[in-house]
Amino acid sequence: MKVYSNMTFADMVGQMYQDFLGAARPVDVGQWQGLDIKGDASKVTWEIREAVLQLGMPESIEGAQHEFSPNLPWAEDHFRERVGGKPLNPPPSNAWWPFAQNGHSEHVDASGKFSHTYPERFWPKHANHGTDCWLEDGVCDTHGGIRFQYGDLADVVSRLRMNPMTRQAYLPVWFPEDTGAPDGERVPCTIGYHFMIREGRLHVSYTIRACDFMRHFNDDVYMAVRLGQWMRDRLGGWADVAMGELTMHIGSFHIFNGDRPMVKHLAHQYVMGKNRRLLEALR
Asked: What is the pLDDT of residues 184-223, one digit of tens each?
Protein backbone atom coordinates (compact mmCIF):
# COMPACT_ATOMS: atom_id res chain seq x y z
CA MET A 1 0.00 0.00 0.00
CA LYS A 2 1.11 3.53 -0.80
CA VAL A 3 -0.39 6.45 1.11
CA TYR A 4 -0.13 10.00 -0.19
CA SER A 5 -1.09 12.69 2.31
CA ASN A 6 0.19 15.82 4.02
CA MET A 7 1.56 17.23 0.77
CA THR A 8 0.40 19.33 -2.14
CA PHE A 9 -1.22 17.62 -5.10
CA ALA A 10 1.79 18.54 -7.26
CA ASP A 11 4.12 16.83 -4.78
CA MET A 12 1.82 13.80 -4.68
CA VAL A 13 2.07 13.48 -8.43
CA GLY A 14 5.85 13.91 -8.29
CA GLN A 15 6.10 11.15 -5.71
CA MET A 16 3.86 8.95 -7.84
CA TYR A 17 6.21 9.33 -10.82
CA GLN A 18 9.02 8.02 -8.67
CA ASP A 19 6.93 5.22 -7.15
CA PHE A 20 5.87 3.96 -10.58
CA LEU A 21 9.53 3.56 -11.42
CA GLY A 22 10.69 2.10 -8.10
CA ALA A 23 7.75 0.42 -6.38
CA ALA A 24 5.35 -0.66 -9.14
CA ARG A 25 5.27 -4.29 -10.30
CA PRO A 26 4.50 -5.62 -13.82
CA VAL A 27 1.11 -7.30 -14.22
CA ASP A 28 -0.46 -8.84 -17.33
CA VAL A 29 -4.13 -8.72 -16.39
CA GLY A 30 -5.30 -10.41 -19.61
CA GLN A 31 -8.17 -7.99 -20.25
CA TRP A 32 -8.51 -4.24 -20.64
CA GLN A 33 -11.83 -2.43 -21.02
CA GLY A 34 -13.48 -5.82 -21.58
CA LEU A 35 -11.10 -6.71 -24.44
CA ASP A 36 -8.67 -9.63 -24.57
CA ILE A 37 -5.10 -8.28 -24.36
CA LYS A 38 -3.27 -11.29 -22.95
CA GLY A 39 0.24 -11.50 -24.36
CA ASP A 40 0.20 -7.94 -25.71
CA ALA A 41 3.42 -6.47 -24.27
CA SER A 42 2.22 -2.90 -24.84
CA LYS A 43 -0.75 -3.53 -22.53
CA VAL A 44 1.29 -4.95 -19.63
CA THR A 45 0.72 -2.65 -16.68
CA TRP A 46 3.04 -1.51 -13.93
CA GLU A 47 0.89 -1.54 -10.84
CA ILE A 48 0.84 -0.02 -7.38
CA ARG A 49 -1.63 -2.14 -5.46
CA GLU A 50 -3.79 -0.20 -2.99
CA ALA A 51 -2.95 3.49 -3.32
CA VAL A 52 -4.65 5.93 -0.97
CA LEU A 53 -4.46 9.70 -1.25
CA GLN A 54 -5.95 12.35 0.99
CA LEU A 55 -6.11 16.03 0.18
CA GLY A 56 -8.13 19.13 0.90
CA MET A 57 -10.79 19.99 -1.67
CA PRO A 58 -10.73 23.52 -3.15
CA GLU A 59 -13.83 25.63 -2.55
CA SER A 60 -14.20 26.80 -6.16
CA ILE A 61 -14.31 25.35 -9.66
CA GLU A 62 -11.41 27.57 -10.65
CA GLY A 63 -9.38 26.33 -7.68
CA ALA A 64 -10.01 22.71 -8.64
CA GLN A 65 -9.06 23.34 -12.28
CA HIS A 66 -5.87 25.11 -11.26
CA GLU A 67 -4.82 22.45 -8.74
CA PHE A 68 -5.66 19.26 -10.62
CA SER A 69 -5.06 20.27 -14.27
CA PRO A 70 -7.88 18.15 -15.74
CA ASN A 71 -8.42 17.68 -19.47
CA LEU A 72 -10.53 20.73 -20.24
CA PRO A 73 -13.08 21.38 -21.54
CA TRP A 74 -13.94 17.67 -21.58
CA ALA A 75 -13.67 17.01 -17.82
CA GLU A 76 -16.03 19.83 -16.88
CA ASP A 77 -18.41 19.08 -19.75
CA HIS A 78 -18.62 15.43 -18.77
CA PHE A 79 -18.98 16.25 -15.07
CA ARG A 80 -22.02 18.39 -15.89
CA GLU A 81 -23.49 15.46 -17.84
CA ARG A 82 -22.98 13.23 -14.80
CA VAL A 83 -24.93 15.53 -12.49
CA GLY A 84 -27.44 16.80 -15.08
CA GLY A 85 -30.29 14.49 -14.06
CA LYS A 86 -30.47 12.52 -17.32
CA PRO A 87 -29.20 8.94 -17.81
CA LEU A 88 -27.45 9.79 -21.07
CA ASN A 89 -26.07 6.93 -23.15
CA PRO A 90 -23.95 7.90 -24.95
CA PRO A 91 -23.18 11.24 -23.30
CA PRO A 92 -22.49 13.98 -25.88
CA SER A 93 -19.00 14.68 -24.48
CA ASN A 94 -18.00 11.21 -25.62
CA ALA A 95 -17.35 12.84 -29.01
CA TRP A 96 -14.48 14.98 -27.69
CA TRP A 97 -13.00 12.72 -24.99
CA PRO A 98 -9.23 13.22 -25.44
CA PHE A 99 -8.35 9.50 -25.29
CA ALA A 100 -11.05 8.12 -27.59
CA GLN A 101 -9.89 5.32 -29.86
CA ASN A 102 -11.69 4.23 -33.04
CA GLY A 103 -14.70 6.27 -32.00
CA HIS A 104 -15.24 3.79 -29.13
CA SER A 105 -16.48 1.34 -31.77
CA GLU A 106 -15.16 -1.61 -29.74
CA HIS A 107 -17.28 -0.66 -26.72
CA VAL A 108 -20.73 0.15 -28.15
CA ASP A 109 -23.54 -2.10 -29.32
CA ALA A 110 -25.36 -1.98 -32.63
CA SER A 111 -27.47 0.98 -31.44
CA GLY A 112 -24.41 2.97 -30.40
CA LYS A 113 -24.91 2.51 -26.66
CA PHE A 114 -22.24 1.65 -24.11
CA SER A 115 -22.62 -1.15 -21.56
CA HIS A 116 -22.84 1.63 -18.97
CA THR A 117 -22.25 5.36 -18.60
CA TYR A 118 -21.73 7.45 -15.49
CA PRO A 119 -24.85 9.56 -16.16
CA GLU A 120 -26.83 6.29 -16.21
CA ARG A 121 -25.30 5.18 -12.93
CA PHE A 122 -25.87 8.56 -11.24
CA TRP A 123 -29.51 8.61 -12.47
CA PRO A 124 -30.54 4.96 -12.87
CA LYS A 125 -34.27 5.21 -12.11
CA HIS A 126 -35.23 5.62 -15.77
CA ALA A 127 -32.05 4.46 -17.50
CA ASN A 128 -32.86 2.73 -20.81
CA HIS A 129 -36.53 3.80 -20.58
CA GLY A 130 -36.39 6.53 -23.21
CA THR A 131 -36.29 10.31 -22.96
CA ASP A 132 -39.95 10.69 -21.94
CA CYS A 133 -39.13 9.12 -18.59
CA TRP A 134 -36.40 11.67 -17.85
CA LEU A 135 -39.00 14.39 -17.35
CA GLU A 136 -40.17 15.15 -13.82
CA ASP A 137 -43.75 14.36 -14.81
CA GLY A 138 -42.80 11.15 -16.60
CA VAL A 139 -45.16 8.23 -15.99
CA CYS A 140 -42.68 5.39 -16.43
CA ASP A 141 -42.01 2.99 -13.58
CA THR A 142 -38.57 3.20 -12.01
CA HIS A 143 -36.15 0.31 -11.93
CA GLY A 144 -36.60 -1.87 -8.89
CA GLY A 145 -34.19 -3.69 -6.63
CA ILE A 146 -34.88 -6.86 -4.69
CA ARG A 147 -37.48 -5.18 -2.46
CA PHE A 148 -37.33 -1.44 -3.08
CA GLN A 149 -37.11 1.03 -5.95
CA TYR A 150 -33.78 2.40 -7.16
CA GLY A 151 -32.45 5.64 -5.71
CA ASP A 152 -30.23 8.18 -7.46
CA LEU A 153 -27.99 11.17 -6.81
CA ALA A 154 -30.98 13.34 -5.87
CA ASP A 155 -31.85 10.86 -3.12
CA VAL A 156 -28.32 11.17 -1.71
CA VAL A 157 -28.87 14.94 -1.54
CA SER A 158 -32.19 14.35 0.23
CA ARG A 159 -30.56 12.01 2.72
CA LEU A 160 -27.99 14.66 3.68
CA ARG A 161 -30.66 17.34 3.88
CA MET A 162 -32.79 15.25 6.23
CA ASN A 163 -29.84 14.37 8.43
CA PRO A 164 -26.56 16.22 7.80
CA MET A 165 -24.78 13.83 10.20
CA THR A 166 -25.90 10.70 8.37
CA ARG A 167 -23.50 7.89 7.50
CA GLN A 168 -25.80 6.65 4.73
CA ALA A 169 -25.11 9.22 2.00
CA TYR A 170 -23.54 6.83 -0.51
CA LEU A 171 -23.77 6.88 -4.30
CA PRO A 172 -22.99 3.46 -5.82
CA VAL A 173 -21.65 3.29 -9.35
CA TRP A 174 -20.80 -0.43 -9.36
CA PHE A 175 -24.10 -2.31 -9.70
CA PRO A 176 -24.94 -6.01 -9.21
CA GLU A 177 -25.09 -6.46 -12.99
CA ASP A 178 -21.35 -5.68 -13.05
CA THR A 179 -20.46 -8.45 -10.62
CA GLY A 180 -18.57 -11.08 -12.54
CA ALA A 181 -19.30 -9.27 -15.85
CA PRO A 182 -21.33 -12.34 -16.95
CA ASP A 183 -21.66 -11.15 -20.55
CA GLY A 184 -18.06 -10.01 -20.83
CA GLU A 185 -19.15 -6.39 -20.83
CA ARG A 186 -17.07 -3.36 -19.95
CA VAL A 187 -17.67 -2.42 -16.31
CA PRO A 188 -17.16 0.84 -14.35
CA CYS A 189 -13.82 1.70 -12.81
CA THR A 190 -15.52 3.66 -10.03
CA ILE A 191 -17.14 1.73 -7.17
CA GLY A 192 -18.84 4.70 -5.53
CA TYR A 193 -18.76 7.89 -3.48
CA HIS A 194 -19.47 8.34 0.24
CA PHE A 195 -20.35 11.79 1.59
CA MET A 196 -20.06 12.76 5.25
CA ILE A 197 -20.40 16.09 7.04
CA ARG A 198 -18.27 16.48 10.13
CA GLU A 199 -17.36 19.64 12.03
CA GLY A 200 -18.90 21.84 9.36
CA ARG A 201 -17.05 20.26 6.45
CA LEU A 202 -18.22 17.96 3.66
CA HIS A 203 -15.84 15.04 3.11
CA VAL A 204 -15.86 12.66 0.14
CA SER A 205 -14.52 9.11 0.20
CA TYR A 206 -14.05 7.87 -3.36
CA THR A 207 -13.40 4.18 -4.11
CA ILE A 208 -12.17 3.16 -7.56
CA ARG A 209 -11.11 -0.37 -8.48
CA ALA A 210 -8.57 0.67 -11.15
CA CYS A 211 -7.07 3.94 -12.35
CA ASP A 212 -4.73 4.71 -15.27
CA PHE A 213 -2.33 7.29 -13.83
CA MET A 214 -1.27 8.87 -17.11
CA ARG A 215 -4.67 9.22 -18.79
CA HIS A 216 -7.42 9.29 -16.17
CA PHE A 217 -6.05 10.12 -12.72
CA ASN A 218 -6.26 13.92 -12.86
CA ASP A 219 -9.75 13.81 -14.33
CA ASP A 220 -10.92 11.26 -11.74
CA VAL A 221 -9.67 13.44 -8.89
CA TYR A 222 -11.15 16.56 -10.47
CA MET A 223 -14.59 15.06 -11.00
CA ALA A 224 -14.69 13.63 -7.47
CA VAL A 225 -13.91 17.10 -6.08
CA ARG A 226 -16.47 18.69 -8.40
CA LEU A 227 -19.05 16.21 -7.17
CA GLY A 228 -18.25 17.28 -3.61
CA GLN A 229 -18.63 20.93 -4.60
CA TRP A 230 -21.92 20.17 -6.36
CA MET A 231 -23.21 18.36 -3.28
CA ARG A 232 -22.18 21.25 -0.99
CA ASP A 233 -24.05 23.71 -3.21
CA ARG A 234 -27.21 21.55 -3.03
CA LEU A 235 -27.13 21.67 0.77
CA GLY A 236 -27.46 25.45 0.98
CA GLY A 237 -30.16 26.30 3.52
CA TRP A 238 -30.03 22.83 5.07
CA ALA A 239 -26.42 22.70 6.19
CA ASP A 240 -23.80 25.46 6.17
CA VAL A 241 -20.73 23.49 5.13
CA ALA A 242 -17.29 24.12 3.66
CA MET A 243 -15.26 21.74 1.57
CA GLY A 244 -13.41 19.07 3.53
CA GLU A 245 -11.10 16.26 2.47
CA LEU A 246 -11.15 13.90 -0.48
CA THR A 247 -9.94 10.41 0.39
CA MET A 248 -9.41 8.31 -2.72
CA HIS A 249 -8.87 4.55 -2.52
CA ILE A 250 -7.43 2.98 -5.69
CA GLY A 251 -7.27 -0.81 -5.90
CA SER A 252 -5.01 -1.02 -8.98
CA PHE A 253 -3.11 2.19 -9.67
CA HIS A 254 -1.23 1.59 -12.91
CA ILE A 255 0.58 2.77 -16.00
CA PHE A 256 1.13 0.89 -19.25
CA ASN A 257 4.49 -0.47 -20.30
CA GLY A 258 4.75 2.10 -23.07
CA ASP A 259 4.30 4.93 -20.55
CA ARG A 260 7.47 4.17 -18.60
CA PRO A 261 9.86 6.35 -20.67
CA MET A 262 7.56 9.37 -20.23
CA VAL A 263 7.14 8.65 -16.50
CA LYS A 264 10.92 8.46 -16.16
CA HIS A 265 11.27 11.81 -17.93
CA LEU A 266 8.59 13.43 -15.77
CA ALA A 267 10.10 12.00 -12.58
CA HIS A 268 13.47 13.50 -13.53
CA GLN A 269 11.85 16.87 -14.24
CA TYR A 270 10.06 16.80 -10.89
CA VAL A 271 13.22 15.95 -8.92
CA MET A 272 15.24 18.62 -10.74
CA GLY A 273 12.55 21.21 -10.12
CA LYS A 274 12.27 20.28 -6.45
CA ASN A 275 16.03 20.50 -6.00
CA ARG A 276 16.03 23.89 -7.71
CA ARG A 277 13.33 25.17 -5.38
CA LEU A 278 15.27 23.94 -2.37
CA LEU A 279 18.41 25.71 -3.54
CA GLU A 280 16.50 28.92 -4.11
CA ALA A 281 14.98 28.69 -0.63
CA LEU A 282 18.45 28.35 0.91
CA ARG A 283 19.85 31.44 -0.79
From this structure: 888 999 999 999 999 999 999 999 999 999 999 999 999 9
Confidence at 140, pLDDT banded by 50, 70, 90 = confident
Q: How far apart are the first and last CA of the chain?
A: 37
Going by their DSSP bridges, the two strands 45-56 and 25-27 should be labelled as: antiparallel
Compute the distance between CA of residue 211 and CA of residue 194 in angstroms, rounded to an integer.
18
pLDDT digits 0-9 by tens, 147-171: 999 999 999 999 999 999 999 999 9
Domain positions in the chain are 2-69+153-282
Cβ 94 vs Cβ 55: under 8 Å: no
pTM of the model: 0.90
User: How many Cα atoms occupy the beta-carbon half-sphere of 279 within 13 Å?
Assistant: 6
Instruction: Extract long-range pairs of 158-166: CB within 8 Å, 24+ residues apart.
Output: 160/195, 160/197, 160/231, 160/235, 160/238, 160/239, 161/235, 161/238, 161/239, 164/197, 164/235, 164/238, 164/239, 164/241, 165/197, 165/198, 166/196
pLDDT at 185: 85
Query: Is the CB of residue 48 less than 8 Å from the CB of residue 106?
Result: no
Confirm if 255 and 25 have CB atoms less than 8 A apart: no
Is CATH 3.40.50.1100 the classification given to domain 2-69+153-282? no
